[in-house]
Structures are given as structure tokens and as C-alpha cells.
Amino acid sequence: MGADRLQIIVTTPTVQAPHTVEITAAKLNALVGEFRNSVKDARLDPRPAGEKLYEVLVKPIEGDLAGANAKTLVWSLDGTLRYVPISALWDGKQYLVERFQNVVITLASRSKVAREPLAVSQWRGLGLGVSKGWGSFPPLAAVPDELKGIIRQENGADERGVLVGRRLLDADFTRSNLERALGRYSVIHIARHFDFLPGKEKSYSLLLGDGTPLKLDTISSSTPLFDKVELLTLSACNTATGGDSEGAEVEGFGVLAQKQGALAVLATLWEVADASTGQLMREFYRLRETNPQWNKAEALRQAQLELLTGQTSTAAATNTERSHIPVEIVSGKGSTQPRYTQDAKAPLAHPYYWAPFILIGNWK
Q1: For residue 55, which of 24, 113, 115, 171 sits 20 to 30 Å off, Cα-Cα?
Q2: Does domain 120-304+353-361 have CATH number 2.60.120.620?
Q3: Distance in angstroms (rounded) separating the CA atoms of residues 130 and 167
Q4: Does the pLDDT at position 274 exceed 70?
Q5: Where in the chain is the domain with CATH 3.40.50.1460?
Q6: For residue range 342-359, what is the model confidence (pLDDT) as tens digits?
Q7: Per-residue confidence (pLDDT) for residue 333, from 0 to 100
């Protein structure tokens, strides 16, 4: 992305095609900001802002995508584009998630994407969660049910979860328990708060079950914590972002986890809603397990579509988020962005509920 133009390079199995879009960096950043504001506020309609970005990012390459019969779009993003929930771009008729699987890759992904993943029948899961409130972090009442819906205990105490494995909740979720469990599970699902302080990336931390923070710089200086992990799911807030206004920290926890060995990371772009997050997560794992021909990207897409279309809508549409920082709300007073009308049959259709989840790395 230059000062007065955007370069888009489309790479297919047979051709590489460059495209130039005449737009200043300031204008593009303004479009990104407008779109981010609308997708993060369930009271605003994100489609007009999403269509403006679609015209810049996707419209110029529609011919290439059609010619390649593309089904999966693998995005290598730069600058503030790293903050964009690509799946929520609007083409005038539908969201991009309704047409394509969307995956993000970074420099940390290069050594991961070519590896063949484990068959889903070999997945064993470690579920880690914090439901209690600590300090300024509010309780997350949906976390226990989220973990129970995903992980069924190895001892056969319950049969509800999708993956066989182990759950460590609240006081059991300590760093020592985590480190002892690592190496035994191909899937690690963490549902808890994430402490995100803009501009202070060395202080980023995830909240452990005993109320203590696990600093990211501590993780990055240790031995690879996530070696042999097929999928690390960070079901929290801002786990793909950090403090750089240019988006370089999507080299955030998600990318750090890949550097620590994880083949793929499912992370978030903003403060996610508690109840609907658990619902989407359970559906992601269920769909992946019951449709072994689907890759991870397709299972995520279908789970997102279920919320979008109202196929699964048992969770209340609320803004209780997994962060001690409030959801960024654009005040309706004086706002030029249109208001969103909720569909009673699809209460979680707004991208606020399903679009923050991005798959980074190996999508197979």
C-alpha cells in the first residue's frame, strides 16, 4: 500500500496478476475505520461501509476469481487492512462469507501452509477457560457451557462435547497445568479474557484461571508452547490484534502462537460477545467433526453462516464482551452511518457476532 495507490496481486495455480487501485492511504484508512466502526456496533448497518471497501479490495479482482473458479481466498494483508474482517465485506447483495472461504496468512504462516494436517478423527482437545470475574474483568457465564459443548472428558464423565480431551476451568487453568498438558493434544481451545493495552504490546497477557496474567513476552521467550498443535483457538478478545495503528501486530497473539508451533490459529479482531461466541465455537467443531471432507476454513464459514441466517440462534444477542475494554460504540447522535434493523428470526446476523473470527495459517 503506497501513499496514493493500492497494489493488489492475485496469485492462482496458473497465473499471477497485478492490479493497481488509485486511492490514497489516508482515504483507504478512513474507509477501514468507517467499516470497523460499523461492524463493531450492532446498532449500525455495516453494509454501506462494507460495500465501499469491497469496491476497492475485491471488485478489481472479480474477473481473476471467476476465472480461477475460486472457493478459498487466502489473504496476505498489509497496514490497516489487517484490521478488516474480510468475510463481512458486502458486494451489494451478500457478504463475502456467503461466497468464499477466507483465510489470513502472515510471515509466520509460510512454514505451516504446506503441511498436511491431521485427519479430524485424530483430533483430541484441551479446553482451557476462565468464567469467574477478576479485578476489572467481568465474569463470563457462557464459558463453562462453551467448553462442555466442545470437549468431553477423557474419563467418560460426560458425553456432550464434540472432541475427546480434557477441560481445565477457572482455578484448574494455571500455567503449570497448561504446560503439563501441552504435547498431548492436537487442538487447544482457550476461552478467557485477553488484556489488550494499545501501544503496550509487551504488556499483553491472557488471564489465567487463578487471576494471574500470562505475559506474551514471557510466552515468546520460552520453549515452543504449541508445538504439534493442529489448531489453537483463542476464543477471547483482540487475540489477532495489538497496539500498532498500522496493524503490524496482527503479528499479535495469533501470530505469536504460530511462531510457538501452532499449525493454525483461530483468533479475533475485536471484543467478542460472550454467549454467541460459545455458540459459534461449538458449531465450528461440530461441523468439522461431522463433515470430515470440509477443511477448517469451510467449517468456520458454515458456522458463521448459521448465525448470519438464523439457523442457530439460541444465544441472546448481547454485547457482553470478553474484554475489560468496552465495545467501541459509535454514538447514534450525529452519526452519518445508517442504523441496523435486527431480524427477529436471525438475532445474531449482524457481523459483530460472527465476523471477528479469523483463521490464520493452515486452513486445510
Answers
A1: 113
A2: no
A3: 11
A4: yes
A5: 120-304+353-361
A6: 999 999 999 999 999 999
A7: 45
